[in-house]
Every structure is written in C-alpha cells, then in structure tokens.
Fold:
Amino acid sequence: MILFPPAKINLGLNILNKRHDGFHELETVLLQIPVNDVLEILPAGKFSFHQSGLQFEQEQESNLVVKAYRLLQKNCDIPETSFHLLKNIPVGAGLGGGSADATYTLLGLNTLYNLNLSSAELQNLSGQLGSDCPCFVNKQPQIATGRGDVLEPVELNLQGCYLKLINPGIHINTTQAYSEIELPKQTESIHKVISRPIEEWKSNLFNSFETSVFKNYPELEKLKTSLYNQGALYASMTGSGSSIYGIYMDEPGKSTGNLFERIVQL
Structure:
C-alpha cells in the first residue's frame, strides 16, 4: 500500500488566549495542499521502519509514523508491519507533515487490516498523537477551534488558484513563538473573513505569530512582501513558521535562492 500524506497551510491563525490546561485557544482554517510525503505500508514478518528523502536527526521510536503504529497496536490486533517514509515536506515548517504522516499511518493500517475504525475513532486516536493530526482524517477544508482539535468542515473554493510555497530553512522554536505572541489582532471571526472574496483577505485575515516572528526574523517579512509584489492575492506565514505562501490567480514565476519552493495548483 502506498499513500501520499499531504502538507497543510493555515488560512489565518488567531490565537485568542491561553487555556487553563496550558494550551492556547485558537481559530484557524486548515487547508490541505498537493505537496506530499510518500508512505509505503506492507505486512511483514517483523517490524521495520526506513526513511529517505529529507533527513533530520530523530530516534526511530520518536517518529510519528512509528508512534501511530505503536498506538494502534495497543488498541487493535494488528500484525508486524514494514514502513518506508519518503520525506518531501520540510520538518518544523508549519506545514503539518509529521502530523499527516501519523494520521495516514492510521488510515492505511485501518484499510490494510480491515479494522473498520470509523472517522470519529480515527480522529480520536490521531488526536493522541498531536493537535494537527485529526484534520488529516478528512480531506475537505476545516475550521479548527479549541486547541486546534475541534474541527468543522467549511466551504472554501480556491479551485484553479495557484499556491506558491517557500520554506527558507529557518527553524522557529514553537515554544518561544507562543511565549512572544501579541494578542489579539484579528477583530472578527476567521469563518466570516474567508467567506469574503480572496481579494479582501489581505486586510482582514491574519496569523497571530507573524508580529513576533517577523520581529526576530525580518527576512520572513521580506519574503512575504516579495510574494505580494509578485502579484499574490493573499500571502501569509503558515503555523508558527517559517514557511510562507502566496495564493495567485495566475501561475507565478519561480524565485531564486530558496532551499524549498513549490508552485502547485489548488
């Protein structure tokens, strides 16, 4: 079985306040995009996990694919399995690649071994692996509230638009990003803003992390500005960074000097 876990971007990310449980109350739209890892899952005589593509230092048991497999082993009777992950989505880039890998591991095992787990059960399991994970159970755009784990499908039509996605290879410490955040900037609900024409998003749809992150990494703000100068209808940082994207009506040209750049049609 071969699966293609997708990246996601945040359309707006409104951090409302800090909760009593230590997490933050937020509001965002999660949109899956056609930038994918590749995950192969095969029945095997013994467990194995291999990774190729983009490399990063991590203990095998800490990889979210392996964590998802171990979690399902505790809840279901599944045999030994072999995994091969081809990593194309940058890590720690606000793109949810690891979360998608984890959820697609659950989805794949559910199908491969006829476990008959429902979408609700899969969302519950994936939520134990990370706040972003449940959004990958279903493919449609979703508005996330709570700590990101309360999901609701949302109507959004960007079909035919182009997305330019750039990750300049800057590592943003998420804990630090949360500690320096300035609240609030969003004045009305994201749900209401995204119902408007995309041309109006620039002045009304914000990522709460940008103020503090751009202060520490001004090159990211310059990158966002360059996307607007190139004709983007809307541009933003996704998650807590450092990936920046622009949405265009017409296919944009490529930039130069970026470690990671993709132009895809939505």
